[in-house]
């Protein structure tokens, strides 16, 4: 499990936001997203205090699971757990860096589970601001 | 009335946070997980689809565990106007891989609602089970509606 394998970086373009937003409608046509809203409309996003169209939190959240899948394979699929708090919005035009295990677990459980291997999860934007953080773990 | 205003009008006809009841059961949704779904999900993320489709983890191919995390949206449709609120926290437990070709059932329950710093939050516990009735994924999501 090398450091470089535990990082995922990508550009959160409006196209990326739109692509993720279209997934649910692709699976369930009745839920195809209508244009506008704070995920795609600049004015709508700014009207609710956002810098711009906001990314879906589950978009970059999914990269944590992908990192864990590559690192742990079936152990992740059969015993994986993760919990992430979303701290700051990610908006169109931001860059996202997802890091797993880059620093010690910041909020360890009062009673650490000896049967699990826990890793810190951190998501940063291009300013180095922490936008989401949490923990991912697998059974030992 | 413009299309956005019309959409907003329809959405506002859904129950609001005040009407939301803790203990409300939502779902079930039932559908087949397809290779196309997995390919499209990986392309949108974007990350390589190889681990999920190349048979290395299961001969049939497997679904990325968070692919159905957005199912809280159809689960809550008609039960809660989601508004423009932001996600506060998401947790997931992966118990069994979901294989491509599996038929899954997604269902959930509103487990909490609360106010914090002037915002109104809800929490949904939802799960994905396969056709054998085996629970594959358990998720908990907390979002604000404002």
Please specify the SSE layout and strand pairing.
The complex is a heterodimer of chains A (140) and B (146).
Chain A: E1 7-12, H1 14-27, H2 42-47, H3 57-72, H4 74-79, E2 81-86, E3 94-100, E4 116-124, E5 130-139
Antiparallel strand pairs in A: 1-3, 2-5, 3-4, 4-5
Chain B: H1 3-12, E1 25-32, H2 35-44, H3 50-53, H4 72-76, E2 87-94, E3 103-116, E4 119-129, E5 135-144
Antiparallel strand pairs in B: 1-3, 2-5, 3-4, 4-5
How would you characterize the overall build of this protein?
The complex is a heterodimer of chains A (140) and B (146). Chain A is α+β, with helices and mostly antiparallel strands. Chain A has helices at 14-27, 42-47, 57-72, 74-79; strands at 7-12, 81-86, 94-100, 116-124, 130-139. A 5-stranded antiparallel sheet of chain A has the order 1-3-4-5-2. The two termini of chain A are 14 Å apart. Chain B has one domain: Thiol Ester Dehydrase, Chain A (Roll). Helices cover 20% and strands 35% of the residues of chain B. Chain B has a 5-stranded antiparallel sheet with strand order 1-3-4-5-2. The relative contact order of chain B is 0.23. The A-B interface holds A 8, 10, 16, 19-20, 22-24, 26-28, 31, 34-38, 41, 44, 48, 54, 56-59, 61-63, 65-66, 69-70, 73-74, 76-86, 89, 134 and B 3-4, 7, 29, 31, 37, 40-41, 43-47, 51-52, 56-57, 62, 64-67, 69-71, 73-74, 77, 84, 86-97.
């Amino acid at each position: 499990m090398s450091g470089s394998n535990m990082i995922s970086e990508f550009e959160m373009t409006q196209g990326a936001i739109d692509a993720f937003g279209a997934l649910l409608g692709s699976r369930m046509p009745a839920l195809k997203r209508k244009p506008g809203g704070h995920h795609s409309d600049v004015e709508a996003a700014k009207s609710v205090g956002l810098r711009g169209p906001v990314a879906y939190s589950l978009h970059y959240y999914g990269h944590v699971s992908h990192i864990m899948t590559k690192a742990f394979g079936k152990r992740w699929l059969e015993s994986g757990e993760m919990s992430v708090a979303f701290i700051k919005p990610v908006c169109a035009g931001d860059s996202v860096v997802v890091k797993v295990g880059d620093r010690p677990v910041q909020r360890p459980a009062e009673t650490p589970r000896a049967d699990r291997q826990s890793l810190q999860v951190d998501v940063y934007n291009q300013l180095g601001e922490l936008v989401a953080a949490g923990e991912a773990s697998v059974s030992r | 009335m413009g299309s956005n205003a019309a959409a907003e009008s329809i959405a506002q006809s859904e129950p609001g946070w005040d009407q939301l009841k803790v203990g409300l059961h939502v779902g079930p949704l039932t559908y087949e997980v397809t290779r196309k779904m997995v390919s499209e999900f990986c392309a949108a993320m974007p990350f390589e689809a190889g681990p999920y489709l190349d048979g290395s983890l299961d001969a049939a191919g497997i679904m990325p565990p968070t692919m159905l995390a957005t199912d809280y949206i159809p689960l809550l449709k008609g039960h809660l106007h989601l508004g423009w609120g932001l996600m506060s926290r998401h947790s997931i437990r992966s118990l069994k891989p979901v294989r491509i070709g599996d038929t899954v059932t997604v269902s959930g329950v509103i487990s909490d609602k609360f106010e914090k710093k002037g915002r109104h939050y809800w929490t949904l516990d939802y799960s994905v089970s396969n056709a054998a009735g085996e629970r594959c994924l358990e998720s908990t999501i907390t979002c604000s509606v404002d």
